[in-house]
Task: structure prediction
Amino acid sequence: MLAALMTQAPASSPPGRPLLSGRADINDWQAYFDKGAEILQRYPNRADSMFHWAHRLDPSRAEPLYARWVTFWLKDIGRFEEYLDDDARVLESAEVIAADSLFLRAMQRNPLVPRPLVAWLFNALPGSWDDNPATRGWLAYSKRQYPLAASYFGQMTRSNNERYVWFHLARALTFMPDQQFDSATTEMNTLLARLRASMDTQRMQSIYESQEIVTYAIGLLQIVRGLPDSARRSFERAVEENLAFFPAHMELGELALGRFNRGAAERSFRQAAELAPNEAWVQERLGAILLRMGKSADALVPLERAIQLEPYYAESYWLLAKAWEGAGDKTAAIKAYQQYLERAPRRDTTAINDSQRRLAALRTSP
Result:
């Protein structure tokens, strides 16, 4: 089930594009995400549409997918309580599996994505949850009271209840804003050790609760700590745990490229693209890597595939224009640059200025 959900195609009937007021940039994923977060409590359905479009504008971001998972539960907080209680009927329902697939896809992009919106879920829970360290921790986290949140989450991890083992990840999140990457790594290593030592086969875990996700997160932390060799070993272990875990393949490709091993880098990215044929951001990254290698003609196929999957993702058009230039097709390059400028967020000033310069040069060249 996990492997199938990792390559799940986008929904066939997406919501219409919602309007944004004022001077909001309708090409910017952040504008839709921020608006969705603003109205989440009052209008969860409208917020879900905002998050959906934030994802379409930049499918590489984890935040919109995670926010849609929160929105799903906020619409039925009673079901969320049953979910936390490991109700088999809830865990096995098609709707919940689909919602969890959103969180899985968010974790593939960034397992340490900030999660302040989770506070709304725990705060809405009835009864004893009001006085629970988990609720207090998420509320403190959402208010950026990170040491206090770490203290509450620590109470959960020290309870010796295996149901609360994943609060090590929540505690790791509290160290990220202040760049306490060593402390975050310690929490993730502890989580991994406890998962491996656990003999509990009765509990039905959510689909995104997997060892390869944790190992992958440790690898990402090792990268920001300047430990590429340790990171490579972590990503290799993630692949050993799940050969279909394409994010680790991509990170191995990046590390190989950093060692100037182009052959290994290309193989890793091509394997990732084969494992995730319906993820536009993965196809786009393969195209970008091929461009960096000077293989413009080879980059055309994955970039066009990315655009086919997500036609609102501006960066794919910019890279496609570069690929067409390198392949010697001026007309196609001009068209791609124009398409990029129609979709470009205003804050992408470097790529916008580059596209305008290249368009002027291509139009005046013989």
About this structure: The mean pLDDT is 91. Residues 2 and 102 are 12 Å apart (CA to CA).
